[in-house]
Design a protein that fits this description.
The chain has about 550 residues and is an alpha/beta fold. The chain is built from 19 helices and 24 strands. The chain folds into 3 domains: about 240 residues, TIM Barrel; about 120 residues, Beta Barrel (M1 Pyruvate Kinase, Domain 3); about 140 residues, Pyruvate Kinase, Chain: A, domain 1 (3-Layer(aba) Sandwich). Strands 1-2-3-13-14-15-16-17 form an 8-stranded parallel barrel, surrounded by 6 helices. Strands 4-7-6-10-9-8-12 form a 7-stranded mixed β-barrel. Helix 8 runs parallel beside helix 10, helix 11 crosses helix 13 and helix 16 packs across helix 17. The radius of gyration is 24 Å and the shape is elongated. The two termini are about 25 Å apart.
Length: about 550
């Protein structure tokens, strides 16, 4: 029998009103934080790490390489100060069309934004002007009648009269006071200008506006020259762990990104396909198969899909990612916490439902990029996740994954059989922890695929690899690469002390200190003995 999680029927009023007295805010579900001007200092990054940030997202929709490098150096110092491991994610600009209202590098989203918002009036005309030269772009000033568009040289060629265009604040919430809907009236190809009519009143604020155009997704390139430069000259150079490939439309987009990484020997960097357009949905199965993970960008998708369809799309994509064992990430959850210390009731429920739907990680945007309560948001989201995880139906999910149909089809590898056996053993004996000895972290990620109800420590053993000119000690990248997987706690073993019992005791000491385990608690261990992989149950000592 599986160890039961709680059922809603088991819960009484006293349980709901009971104060959470645990001294931890950890959860199996991970949190990704977008780093911005307010959260990029060593002090603020340390707070985010202590609150539960697992991955730091560097958004290349804005900011120079120098700016992001300074932030990365601060993150590394924060990790050193807190002794907390954190992965890095480069989010490409992609085919996002934008209007800049301030310089590329800003010190404050509030101070550097125009003092007076652009006032848009229903029925007024506004011209979108395409400018290809970066120096000329800096000289152009946006007004309520004139928007200089960047990052889309071919905009005039791909739009048509009658198309709908949505323009909102970067990481917009969808509020009609900060976003405007336009209709294309005419196109001047010679002067590269598009004349539109405003369909609603709006006050446009911020340093960057994003532009969404209906029905043109497949005409826009996913990886631009700008993106390739960012990937090669910043991502590869700084050994990033994940690429968030914005506006992925097909598996070919993922293959192109992987080719760029492989050409520069960045084999460890994983690719998360960011689903932002309705046009990507017809290729979703191929995208999931090709990518290492999928990010459901509900902000952009929400402008292209009927509101009533978004929830079922989320459930469908998460289920397919879970089945394939790929990272499943949901974005845009607690927008109001950018300005308020508590989420709305609907947002708290949304976070919990994302967990119950099978999300590996939740991605925070404006909340940590420009919000006033960044670390508080991370702590709150992880508390909601932890509560929701108590009601996740592990048994049903496990049975679906290990169904007889899959076994008969020969789809279960030896590593997967080992991982599923560890989860089965752990739930049967009521284990509090699974420990996986690994060199690459792959076995631990396989355990995560079966949604163990207890944490999984991925103990990465560093190893030497010879490249064309030297020997390289590897392991840290493999440890960080596991930080997106649900339930995995990566640890990097000391390369000078690889004796199994000593390493296991190190994990036990960590578990007692950080996870509240006590002597006598049962632990499931996956390791190799004399070349044979085994699963064993051991009591904590």
């Amino acid at each position: 029998m599986f160890h039961r999680t709680e059922s809603i029927d088991d819960i009484g009023l006293s349980r709901i009103l009971q104060t959470d007295k645990s001294n931890t805010i950890s959860s199996l579900t991970k949190v990704i934080c977008t780093i911005g001007v307010k959260s990029r200092t060593v002090e603020e990054l340390s707070k985010l790490l202590e609150a539960g940030m697992s991955v730091a997202r560097f958004d290349f929709s804005w900011g120079s390489h120098k700016y992001h490098t300074e932030t990365l150096m601060n993150l590394r110092q924060a990790m050193k100060n807190t002794k907390i491991l954190c992965a890095t994610m480069l989010d490409t600009f992609g085919s996002e069309v934008a209007v800049r209202l301030a310089a590329e590098d800003v010190s404050s989203f509030d101070k550097d934004a125009p003092k007076t918002p652009l006032e848009m009036k229903k029925g007024n005309k506004v011209v979108l002007s395409v400018c290809n030269d970066r120096e000329d772009q800096k000289k152009m000033v946006a007004t309520s009648e004139f928007f200089p568009v960047v990052n889309c040289d071919s905009l005039c060629e791909i739009v048509a009269v009658g198309d709908s265009i949505f323009i909102g604040q970067y990481l917009f919430t969808g509020s009609e006071t900060s976003s405007v809907y336009l209709t294309v009236e005419s196109i001047d190809l010679e002067n590269k200008e598009i004349v539109c009519t405003c369909n609603n009143d709006a006050l446009m604020r911020g340093v960057l506006l994003t532009v969404q155009i209906s029905n043109v997704g497949e005409k826009l390139p996913t990886i631009s020259r700008h993106d390739e430069n960012d990937i090669v000259n910043w991502g590869v150079k700084n050994n990033v762990d994940f690429i968030s490939l914005s506006f992925t439309d097909s598996a070919e987009d993922v293959r192109k990104c992987r080719q760029i990484l492989d050409e520069h020997k960045s084999f460890h960097t994983k690719i998360c396909a960011k689903i932002e357009r309705a046009s990507a949905l017809k290729n979703i199965d191929e995208i999931i198969q090709e990518a290492d993970g999928v990010i459901i960008s509900r902000g952009n998708l929400g402008t292209e899909l009927p509101a009533e369809k978004v929830f079922i799309l989320q459930k469908m994509i998460l289920a397919r990612c879970n089945y394939a064992g790929k990272h499943a990430i949901v974005a845009r959850l607690v927008d109001t916490m950018a300005e308020a210390p508590r989420p709305t009731r609907a947002e708290a429920t949304d976070v919990a439902n994302a967990v119950l739907d099978g999300a590996d990680a939740l991605l925070l945007g404006a909340e940590t990029l420009r919000g006033n309560f960044a670390s508080e948001t991370v702590a709150m989201v992880r508390k909601i996740c932890r509560e929701a995880e108590r009601f996740y139906d592990h048994e049903s999910f496990y049975n679906a994954q290990i169904s007889q149909r899959k076994i008969e089809a020969g789809e279960v590898s030896q590593a997967e059989a080992l991982a599923s056996s560890a989860v089965r053993a752990g739930t049967k004996v009521g284990a509090k922890l699974i420990v996986v000895f690994t060199r690459t972290g792959e076995t631990a990620r396989m355990v995560s695929k079966y949604r163990a109800p207890m944490p999984v420590v991925s103990l990465v053993i560093p190893h030497l690899r010879q490249d064309s000119i030297r020997w390289v000690l590897e392991g840290e990248s493999d440890a960080r690469g596991a930080l997106l997987a649900r339930g995995i706690v990566p640890m990097l073993a000391n390369p000078q002390n690889s004796e199994a019992n000593s390493l296991l005791q190190m994990v036990f000491d960590f578990a007692k200190k950080k996870a509240g385990l006590v002597i006598g608690d049962r632990v499931v261990i996956i390791q190799k003995l004399s070349g044979t992989a085994i699963v064993k149950v051991q009591e904590l000592t």
